[in-house]
């Protein structure tokens, strides 16, 4: 399994956690998700969360996990993704999550010494 396939498989965890935390369901839009994925990849290349249009919410989370990505440590990655959902909910843009019915998510990951940096973008529509 390659990196993109493996990480794409984790997006459902983020969406489910958002739905559970907010007590509502979202329509998952693949076109919207494509833009979110490109934004996450760009954040990874820049190494930081950078300005994006209002319909994009970007989160960068650093987790010190012993070689998490190298060993595909799913428990650690899934816990980090759940923390990102909480980060989105606690962001200043929380109200945007309640106003939109469709979302798309993008994830990118970078290994660092003794851990990972996970870049997540939530794109809103409708």
From TrEMBL:
Name of this chain's protein: SCP domain-containing protein
Organism: Candidatus Jorgensenbacteria bacterium RIFCSPLOWO2_12_FULL_42_11
């Amino acid at each position: 399994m390659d990196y993109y396939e493996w990480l794409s498989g984790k997006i459902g965890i983020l969406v489910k956690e958002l739905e559970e935390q907010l007590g509502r369901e979202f329509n998952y839009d693949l076109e919207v998700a494509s833009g979110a994925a490109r934004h996450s990849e760009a954040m990874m290349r820049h190494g930081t969360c950078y300005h994006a249009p209002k319909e994009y919410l970007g989160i960068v989370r650093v987790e010190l996990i012993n070689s998490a990505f190298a060993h595909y440590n799913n428990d650690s990655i899934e816990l980090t993704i759940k923390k990102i959902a909480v980060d989105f909910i606690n962001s200043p843009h929380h109200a945007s999550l309640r106003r939109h019915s469709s979302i798309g998510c993008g994830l990118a990951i970078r290994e660092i010494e003794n851990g990972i940096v996970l870049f997540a973008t939530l794109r809103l529509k409708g």
